[in-house]
Amino acid sequence: MKINKGVFFVLLGAGCFGFTPVFAKLGFGHGYSLGQINLVQMVISFLLLWSIAFLKGDGIKGLTKKNIIPIMITGCFIGLTSIFYYGAMQYLPASLAIILMFQFVWIGILFEWVFNKIKPAPITIFSIVLILVGVFFASNILNGDMQGLPIKGFVWAYYLLLLMLPLSFSAEKSPLMSIH
Predict the structure, then answer these.
(1) Residues near 95 by Cβ (< 8 Å), separated by ≥ 6?
(2) Cα–Cα–Cα angle for 132, 130, 128, nearest 5°?
(3) DSSP 169
(4) What is the pLDDT of residue 179?
């Protein structure tokens, strides 16, 4: 039963994450700014998450003075991720922005190998190869669709990638989270 619940929440999260580019592109098309779109997303997320927390009765259970700073830092990175992701979508197609965003997966594994000395398992390396092959085909490089895209979009996506890297480390081993 727990596996089905976990699968449900993963699918729900993926579905919600998949809808955000649609709303962002629609918002940009109707003249809303990057800040306005992000503000609306943050307010809706704030209300939904705190409503769920209080309905479950959890509230702020488990929040201590020791873990509040790492939680706030993580929240800042997640918030900045939305800003840079939507910033990239202002200039790039949403499909390319998401491809660029998810490069943090294999780069995070590479960083973990270099900085934490955790060598990836063969299945992880195979997964990275699959990711890169998928990125190659999904980006449509062979047809030359990359030409003429504004460099601003790639700069936003690059900042997004830099922000995602600290989140790809585990909280216990992340250089960012070891701040006391």
Answers:
(1) 138
(2) 70
(3) S
(4) 42
pLDDT at 84 (0 to 100)? 82
Distance between CA atoms of residues 74 and 85, nearest Å: 16
Tokens of 43: 């307010």
Q: Is the pLDDT of residue 86 over 90?
A: no
Cα dihedral across residues 91, 95, 99, 101: positive or negative: positive
Q: How many CB atoms lie within 10 A of CB 78?
A: 13
Q: Do the beta carbons of residue 176 and residue 111 sit within 8 Å?
A: no
Is residue 175 helix, strand or coil?
Answer: coil
- Which amino acid makes up residue 116? N
Instruction: Give CA 12 to chain center in angstroms.
Output: 15
Q: Is 59 helix (H, G, I), strand (E, B) or coil?
A: coil
What share of the chain has pLDDT > 90, as a percent? 9
Q: 12 — phi, psi (to 5°)?
A: -60, -45
DSSP state of 143: G
| Residue from 45, 36, 68, 95 nearest 180 by CA | 68
Residue 112 sits at the vertex; the CA angle it makes with 8 and 78, to the nearest 5 degrees, is 50
